[in-house]
Each structure stands twice: as C-alpha cells, then as structure tokens.
Amino acid sequence: MWEIRKFLFMLLLCLLLGMSVGTCSAQYQVTNSELESLETIFQQLGSNNEQLLIDLELSKTDLMQARMKLEEYRKDLALLQEKLLQLKEESQKAKTELETAQGLLDKANQSLTKLNKEVKSEIRGLKMQRDLSILAAVAISVYK
Questions:
Q1: pLDDT at 143
Q2: The pLDDT of residue 17
Q3: Is the pTM of this model over 0.70?
Q4: Burial letters 121-133, b for 16+ CB under 10 A, else e
Q5: Taking CA atoms, which of 6, 28, 85, 116 is between 20 and 30 Å from 12?
Q6: 3-class DSSP state for residue 19?
Q7: How far apart (Å, rounded) are the C-alpha atoms in residues 39 and 53?
Q8: Is residue 54 part of a domain?
Q9: CA distance 131 to 35
Q10: How far is CA 114 from the centre of its chain?
C-alpha cells in the first residue's frame, strides 16, 4: 500500500516538474474602457499626490514659523520671568524700607505723645503757678 502511494506521489511529482512555468501562466486582456478607467485613476492619484506634496510643503513652512514663534515666546517668557524676579526683589526691599519707616514713625509718634504730655504737664504747672501768683497778689493786696 505504501509502495503504491510512493509510486503515485513520485509520478505526480515528475509530471509537475516536467511542466514548464509558461504553461501555467494565464493571459489577461484589458478592454479599452478598463484601460481608460485605470488611466483616470492614475491621473487622479497623480493629482492627489501633487496636492499632498504641496500641502506637505505648506505644513513644513507653517511648522517652521510656529517653531520660530515658539522660540520667540520662550525668550519673552525668560525675560518676563527675570523681570518678575527683579520686581519681587524690589518689592521685598520696598517692604523692608516701609517697615523701617513705619517703625521710625511709630517711635516719632511715641516721642510726640510723650512730649505732648510733658508740655501739658508743664502748662498745668505754669497755670497753677500763675493762679497761685494771682492769688498771692490778691491776698497781699487784700491784707495791705
């Protein structure tokens, strides 16, 4: 049984090897309408390809411009950040100076309040001396 199978397989293999490649190829004929349709399709593909290439170039130009703008914006951002730091430093310095000035103003107010109290006390003392002098003068004139 195996022998027969081997023999048939070998025979089939020899027949297949004996055939040339050309005998297996099929012939295909294209009609004029099919050829025209293919030409139309290829023309459309060509014009689509040209439009895509134009769009690609425009995109490249737009991308380059966007990159340049981005770089410009990055530089502007760096400058603005630097200015912000300077302003923060100046603000901190002004705040410190303001606190110092406020402290000096508070001390001046305290001194002024103290002086005002001293002046009022001295005025009271002087008024009392005046009143006592008047009283003494009146008393002396009454006793004379």
A1: 83
A2: 62
A3: no
A4: eeeeeeeeeeeee
A5: 28
A6: coil
A7: 21
A8: yes
A9: 136
A10: 57
Expressed as residue numbers, the domain containing 136 is 42-143
Q: Rounded to an integer, what is the distance from CA 87 to the centroid of its chain?
A: 20
Q: What whole-number distance in Å separates Cα of residue 87 and Cα of residue 80?
A: 10
CA separation for the pair 84, 130 (Å, rounded)? 66
Residue 124: partners with Cβ closer than 8 Å, 6 or more residues away: none
Query: Tell me, what amino acid is at 126?
Result: L
Is 5 part of a structural domain of the chain?
Answer: no
Q: Which two tokens stand for residue 139?
A: 């008393």
Structure tokens at 100: 């110092």
Q: Tokens 């410190």 map to which residue?
A: 96
| 114 within a domain of the structure (yes/no) | yes
pLDDT digits (tens, 9 = 90+) for 2-45: 677 677 777 676 666 666 555 555 677 888 998 899 999 999 99
Burial 18-37 (b: 16+ CB within 10 A, else e): eeeeeeeeeeeeeeeeeeee
3 state SS of 20 = coil
Domain count of the fold of the chain: 1
27: left (phi over 0), alpha (psi -120 to 50) or beta: beta
The answer to whether residue 22 is domain-embedded is no
